[in-house]
Write a structure and sequence with these properties.
This protein has four helices and five strands, in the order E-H-H-E-E-E-H-E-H. It is of the alpha+beta class and 156 residues long. The chain has one domain: Gcn5-related N-acetyltransferase (GNAT) (Aminopeptidase, 3-Layer(aba) Sandwich), CATH 3.40.630.30. InterPro entries: Acyl_CoA_acyltransferase, Bact_Acetyltransf, GNAT_dom.
Length: 156
């Protein structure tokens, strides 16, 4: 069983490397690990961010979760958004993802978050099953649809 704990700014380099591994595994455009680490160092100091790190018995990092919290008009507490959850490929299906998710849920609940949002690509069947097994549901029961994300500039 892995040890799972809340990450601190001291873990920024490790989280940057894990996110780089995650992005390159799935051939997603990414910044270098050192750039990601610098961003993690800045973000982990914020109250609106929660990160969780999984390590094996030797202290080797084997996965992480990263969440953001945002105010919501519909709740007294913030809504949490699971931005990333990653387990190294050779250790998947061993309960590490569940450990990361469980601690993440406890930590955001402690700060009053009543609801967690997770974006999952329609074609990512294994990931969808994982979250459904943990009580998450597609907001349109029984409907499979593409997740659309619109990105645009904040100025002219």
């Amino acid at each position: 069983m892995s040890k799972v704990r809340r990450a601190t700014p001291d873990d920024a380099d490790v989280l940057g490397a894990l996110l780089w591994d995650f992005n390159t595994e799935f051939e997603t455009e990414t910044d270098d690990a050192d750039v990601l680490a610098a961003r993690f160092a800045r973000l982990l100091a914020l109250d609106e961010v929660v990160a969780v790190l999984a390590e094996d018995g030797d202290g080797t990092p084997v996965g992480f979760a990263f969440l953001s919290l945002r105010p919501a008009i519909w709740y007294d507490g913030p809504v949490s958004q699971l931005e990333e959850l990653y387990v190294v490929p050779e250790l998947r299906s061993q309960g590490i993802g569940t450990q990361l998710l469980d601690l993440s849920r406890r930590l955001v609940l402690e700060v009053g978050s009543p609801e967690m949002h997770i974006g999952v690509d329609e074609v990512d069947v294994d990931t969808r099953r994982f979250y459904e097994r943990h009580g998450f549901r597609n907001i349109e029961d029984g409907v499979d649809y593409r997740m659309l994300l619109y990105i645009g500039p904040t100025g002219d």
